[in-house]
Amino acid sequence: MSRPPFSVPPEVMQALEELWSAGHAGYLVGGGVRDALLGRTPHDPVWDLATDAIPERALELFPGGTYENRFGTVLAGGVEVTTFRRDHAYGDHRRPDRVTFTDSIEEDLARRDFTVNAVAWGRAAGGQEAGWVDPTGGRADLDARLLRAVGDPELRFGEDALRLVRAARIAAQVGLTIHPDTEAAMSERAGDVSYLATERIGRELRRMLDAEPPSAAFRILERTGLLRSLFPELAAQLGVVQDKIPGQDLWDHSLATLDAAAALAPADPIAKLAALLHDTGKPETAADGHFLGHEEAGARIAQTFLSRLGFGSQDVRRVVRLVRHHMWSYVPAWGDAAVRRFMRRVGVDLVDDLLRLREADNVGSGWPAEGGGVAELRARIAEQRHRRPPLSLADLAVDGNAVMASLGREPGPWLGRTLERLLDSVISDPERNTPERLLADARTWAEKP
Description:
The chain has 449 residues and is of the alpha+beta class. Among the domains are: 10-136, Beta Polymerase, domain 2 (2-Layer Sandwich); 266-389, no CATH class; 393-445. The chain contains 23 helices and eleven strands. The strands form three sheets. Strands 3-4-5-2-1-8-9 form a seven-stranded mixed sheet. The protein has a two-stranded antiparallel sheet with strand order 6-7. Strand 4 (73-76) and strand 5 (79-83) form a beta hairpin. Helix 13 packs across helix 19 and helix 18 (336-346) packs across helix 20. The radius of gyration is 28 Å and the shape is elongated. It starts with 9 loop residues before the first helix and ends with a helix.
């Protein structure tokens, strides 16, 4: 058998055959094999190949490749080619202090995290027939939909604390049940996540949000005690009572809202993050069954949470704005000007996401998605967009230079206040948005020097 019994991208198969042609062992390993055996599209577009070729030899075989670490991995296009290795002590609970290259695929697989990731397909150096190498029973565990650590789970998690987080993420993402011994070790070593760089945790969080449903990963974190160690802002919602669905606490509501947001916008991580974080301000504002000001508290918490985990500033700002504005209310008596003011206040770029967040929040509360006037407000916003009214300073028929020239004044704080007042006037009455009307108003309103 020279081709694997599952689909492999042509460039990956070409790299594997290059190793074989040069007389080296070459095996497909890792998450790509796992996902392919489950009939899933691999979550990671980069496939892993394991080989007895040392990095210098791999660079000769793949001249466009790069070798930038001490663990034997050469990146060649969409393929990571890694030399068989043994890992030694993990002094920092993150990475091995040193590695030793070996010529044994079995030794290489024995160092891996979970049995389902320790399955290899390929052939030995000089071999004629390719086949499976599965010393830890990973294929049987896949058939049983089981996630099990390789060997002693406490030892595996003690080596690299990120494996604790990966276990929750992989189980949720792939749809596996964690073996009881492995889950018990996760609980025992939950505190080890303190060794991790927050950016590594943030990368895993992003991937958890892609699970279907994303709440599955967070339920595992909750069950093992990892939630409090990793995300105390989220764990603070546990046990907080609110008047939504009987028998459910605030954390239940947040996870239901997260799943609803994922159903509404599967490819939008901002929508999912906003749903996950929208009520994080409630625990600190809870008083007499109310949570006054929780949206502002939640915006502050979201800012700190996402920045700590290494999210980009643009994404952080967008999530924070969604959390800050998520408590809007609408009544049918609003006039068109009120609709325009709403669009201006929350941001024209944000209104669609904000309405979607409300739909998710409604579903997470046990209500119809479009309850509270969501559908009507969406229609009225669409109508205003069709009319293209002025909604920002850039939409004004005059700019700051024209106002200064008309009034004969130098720049100063007065100018910004005047432009904002002009904008407010044209939001109320778009017909006022002409140079003549605006400059006349500016002359009337401008403060004296």
